């Protein structure tokens, strides 16, 4: 662990040598910092004392080699004495859940809600693309657990999309965003969708073992998604485009009607910002008379017309990410492997785990190779 400072800020660097380490940073007060990092060699739990006061939120970044950089602005702009940060102790007790608060709750179409929230305890989780958060909510007399993959922190409605591409690598501790479907009647998602501003619930550390760095040599990424489940791969789209300037990403997105196309404008913006390395095909099963795009339900004919057959040159440089139901993923997997000739290891189903009750079993594996089921 290394310490650094300038007149403006102060920070720590951990070299974990772990792709996608799980990072949680908690500022107990303006001088005491708790750091938890889960690595392949174990868990780091450190408590630090700053020489002087710092300002929340901080900034966390993690590179593809597993180097974690934690940085806070100083309350007063001056050079501190050395050591400017002291290690107080290594803590063994870890808080797995902490209180969070709803900041905004916005209806973005007829049955979809965008919720932003932040910790009330000055705790910040660094969430890698593809990882998810678990929430404990009190629903109908019992504590229920539900999981979500956060969406990237840029506007959904206005879609101001700067160049270069924004992503999840450099994050502040201000807030997270999630998308939920309002499924009535009397469901947990309906209950969460109707949470008022200021409502409290408990949020976990980052969960999930999908690590995009494992696929850093991939040249072509195809995403095949159904309706709202596309939210599970939004951060991965950004990651795959950001980390390789020659990589291409293509998404086939099946929806019911125009109201499902929440991210259509954003996809156009990504295409432009990535110099056409990102492209997409929208297919509606029940589009209105005004819809001029493709129509139909998920069917092999769409894959056959869009995705090339496997060839020796690119067969090991192509990755498929599937979202939606396990039935949809299984059928699509068979089409890609049997009919298209791709190896089974190249097809992954990305999901945000399974709802559990009574705060018991957490599903940690959030991606599945369909052949392993």
Helix-strand layout with pairing:
Layout: E1 2-5, E2 9-15, E3 22-27, E4 32-39, E5 42-50, E6 54-62, E7 67-74, E8 85-90, E9 97-109, E10 112-119, E11 123-126, E12 133-139, E13 142-148, E14 170-172, E15 176-181, H1 188-193, E16 200-204, E17 220-226, H2 234-242, E18 248-255, H3 264-273, E19 278-284, E20 294-295, H4 300-306, E21 318-322, H5 326-339, E22 347-350, E23 356-357, E24 367-369
Parallel strand pairs: 17-18, 17-21, 18-19, 19-20, 21-22
Antiparallel strand pairs: 1-2, 2-7, 3-4, 3-11, 4-5, 5-8, 6-7, 6-14, 9-10, 9-16, 10-15, 12-13, 12-16, 13-23, 22-24
Description:
This protein has helices at 188-193, 234-242, 264-273, 300-306, 326-339; strands spanning 2-5, 9-15, 22-27, 32-39, 42-50, 54-62, 67-74, 85-90, 97-109, 112-119, 123-126, 133-139, 142-148, 170-172, 176-181, 200-204, 220-226, 248-255, 278-284, 294-295, 318-322, 347-350, 356-357, 367-369. The longest helix has 14 residues, at 326-339. The strands form 4 sheets. It has a 7-stranded antiparallel beta sheet with strand order 15-10-9-16-12-13-23. Strands 20-19-18-17-21-22-24 form a 7-stranded mixed beta sheet, sandwiched between helices. The chain folds into 3 domains: 2-90, Immunoglobulin-like; 98-204, Translation factors (Elongation Factor Tu (Ef-tu), domain 3, Beta Barrel), CATH 2.40.30.10; 212-357 and 362-372, Rossmann fold. The protein is built from 5 helices and 24 strands. The model is unreliable at 155-172 and 353-366 (pLDDT under 50). With 373 residues, the chain is mostly beta strands.
